[in-house]
Amino acid sequence: MVNVTARARELLSFALDEIAEAPDQRLRLGPREQLWLALDEIAEAPDQGFQFGPTGPGQLGVFPDTEREDDQVVEHDGHPVLVLDREIVDALAGWTIDIEETEEGPRFVLKA
User: Cα–Cα distance between 33 and 48 in angstroms, integer?
Assistant: First the structure.
């Protein structure tokens, strides 16, 4: 299981509210090379980024998607905001998704 802090859930909820085009959309954590829309590209202000660390091949990011049967679902205030597929959950088991404040704005980080 991947843990997600309350602050990270809150920011994920905000990001989902900004980009969701359908009520069943969630954010999915996945490899950046699979992303068709990186959240840092749609942020309203330049200092609001929603990416996981540096951008580039092999990095993780979040993007809009729908829930799948085998996903781990992360909720904020009783509403699903993030989904993680089995491969990501297995690879990041025991890790925590958190927020780190940077000069460019908040960034998601993974902590062991």
Answer: 21
Question: Beta partners for 1?
Answer: none
The C-alpha atoms of residue 26 and residue 17 are separated, in whole angstroms, by 10
Q: What is the mean pLDDT of the chain?
A: 79
The pLDDT of residue 43: 42
Q: Which strands make up the sheet holding 79-84, listed edge to edge?
A: 60-66, 25-31, 79-84, 72-76
pTM (2 d.p.): 0.77
Query: Residues 111, 91, 76, 22: is their CA dihedral positive or negative?
Result: positive
Q: Write the CB contacts of 82 (distance below 8 Å, at least 6 apart in sequence).
A: 4, 9, 12, 26, 27, 28, 29, 62, 73, 74, 97
